[in-house]
């Protein structure tokens, strides 16, 4: 497929339609971050696409305007939510919170981007009628085979109308870590508006722009995530769709996310003050200006220089360097920092679906995590740096045998046998 067919550029804000933008910062162009390669695909061309973050001058929504066709990125998705026990616990808490709030006591729940159906299963266990809408064919098939009814489709206004015609209005609509991926957000929320019953509520979780800025999570910026949401722009967007934000909570998933609670305009759910509180905090941070983005860009540059210098210095002394973690964001980080297979021999990753593959663009081989001890390099750079503490703790034996971990962000830290106890004692994760 040619680059022209899969790439397009928006000219209007995804939330308000405004035509004017500022560039918040430019990251180096990359291929789609989840386009891992098999060994026999290493010779095939991989187009790179611009990865620039823009801010709308009218509503201040932070977003990508360079769009890669989602059918290229999502038809076979390697991430399966049911694999992590921490994540399942998170979903149980979400279910209990939502069922505690929902005014309809025999609700119909629809999940947008239902993945393998883990959340559907949890609601079903409480006797709730459920339906998932999931575009990845392998995940939808898995969910259906396991008794979690799932429509294999992208959620949009047509899908919403079809669901309502067949199953009636929804009282609960959930969307976890999916709305940041959708380019045609107005159509999706038009569908939510039409599908949701008059006393219904919609809950969606997305990465929170405030966390991206405060924690320096710039590597969560890749083409699959077209929006970086904050409360201010979302309030106006929902109002224009005939909807209303009545509560918002900061949560820890994905390095820092926000959970939005939405109802019909003037609906029955009471405001709890959380929306106003977060809005005030965003204004304090200066999210309506470019200054927090400029500060983040400078911080990223310092981290990049420090890591490149560390690797160069280590290799010049004959040391071997491996890496830990091959999440999608490693593509952003390695491209932006200018690192490749010459710098890092391999990436060790827990996900068996990724082992044996190569990273997009940079072609670093992904191996299982036993490589840390089996193939013991001198240094292991932790690219899944938001999980650094638990990785260091789990692989303490590597350090005890003389290995060193390098944690590149938020600022470079080296963990060796000399400071591992202090690191573990003083680091929260
Ligand atoms: Zn806008």
The CATH superfamily of the largest domain turns out to be: Vaccinia Virus protein VP39
- CA-atom Rg in angstroms: 22 Å
Largest sheet: 7 strands, mixed
Number of strands: 19
Q: Quote the CATH topology of the largest domain.
A: Rossmann fold
Write down the overall geometry: globular
Our estimate of the beta-strand percent is: 15-25%
Q: Helical amount among residues, as a percent range?
A: 25-40%
**CATH architecture label name of the largest domain:** 3-Layer(aba) Sandwich
Q: What is the tally of helical segments?
A: 16
Query: According to CATH, what is the class of the largest domain?
Result: Alpha Beta
Protein architecture, described:
With 429 residues, the chain is an alpha/beta fold. The chain has 2 domains: 209 residues, 3-Layer(aba) Sandwich (Rossmann fold); 119 residues, Rossmann fold, CATH 3.40.50.720. Helices cover 35% and strands 22% of the residues. The chain is built from 16 helices and 19 strands. The strands form 4 sheets. It has a 7-stranded mixed beta sheet with strand order 8-7-6-9-10-13-12, sandwiched between helices. It has a 6-stranded mixed beta sheet with strand order 16-15-14-17-18-19. The site of zinc ion has 8 residues, from loops.
Quickly list its features.
429 residues; alpha/beta; Rossmann fold; 2 domains; seven-stranded mixed sheet; six-stranded mixed sheet; 22% strand; binds zinc ion
């Amino acid at each position: 497929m040619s680059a022209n067919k899969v790439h397009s550029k928006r000219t209007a804000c995804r939330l308000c339609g405004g035509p004017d933008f500022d560039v918040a910062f430019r990251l180096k162009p990359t291929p789609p971050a989840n386009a891992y390669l098999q060994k026999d695909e290493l010779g095939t061309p991989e187009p790179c696409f611009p990865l620039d973050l823009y801010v709308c001058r009218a509503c201040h929504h932070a977003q990508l305007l360079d769009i890669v066709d989602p059918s290229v990125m999502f038809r076979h998705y390697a991430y399966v939510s049911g694999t992590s026990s921490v994540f399942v616990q998170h979903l149980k808490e979400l279910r209990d919170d939502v069922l505690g709030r929902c005014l309809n006591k025999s609700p119909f729940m629809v999940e947008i981007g239902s993945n393998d159906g883990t959340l559907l299963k949890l609601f079903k266990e409480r006797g709730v009628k459920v339906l998932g809408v999931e575009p990845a064919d392998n995940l939808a098939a898995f969910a259906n085979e396991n008794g979690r009814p799932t429509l294999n489709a992208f959620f949009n206004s047509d899908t919403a109308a079809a669901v309502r015609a067949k199953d009636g209005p929804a009282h609960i609509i959930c969307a976890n870590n999916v709305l940041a991926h959708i380019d045609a957000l107005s159509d999706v929320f038009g569908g939510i508006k039409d599908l949701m019953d008059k006393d219904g509520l919609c809950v969606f979780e997305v990465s929170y722009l405030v966390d991206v800025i405060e924690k320096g999570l710039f590597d969560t910026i890749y083409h699959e995530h077209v929006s970086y949401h904050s409360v201010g722009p979302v309030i106006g967007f929902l109002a224009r769709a005939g909807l209303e934000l009545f509560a918002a909570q900061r949560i820890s998933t994905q390095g820092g996310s926000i959970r939005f609670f939405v109802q019909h305009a003037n609906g029955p759910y009471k405001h709890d003050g959380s929306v106003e509180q977060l809005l005030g905090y965003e204004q304090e941070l200066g999210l309506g200006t470019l200054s927090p983005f400029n500060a983040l860009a400078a911080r990223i540059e310092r981290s990049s220089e420090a890591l490149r210098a560390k690797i160069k210095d280590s290799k010049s002394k004959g040391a071997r360097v491996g890496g830990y973690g091959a999440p999608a964001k490693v593509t952003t980080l390695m491209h932006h920092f200018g690192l490749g297979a010459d710098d890092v021999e391999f990436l060790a990753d827990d996900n068996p679906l990724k082992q044996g593959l190569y990273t997009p663009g940079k072609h670093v081989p992904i191996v299982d995590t036993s490589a840390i001890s089996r193939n013991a390099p001198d240094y292991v750079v932790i690219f899944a740096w938001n999980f650094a503490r638990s990785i260091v703790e789990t692989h303490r034996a590597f350090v005890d045998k003389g290995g060193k971990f390098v944690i590149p962000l938020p600022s470079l830290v080296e963990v060796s046998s000399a400071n591992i106890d202090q690191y573990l004692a003083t680091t929260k994760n």
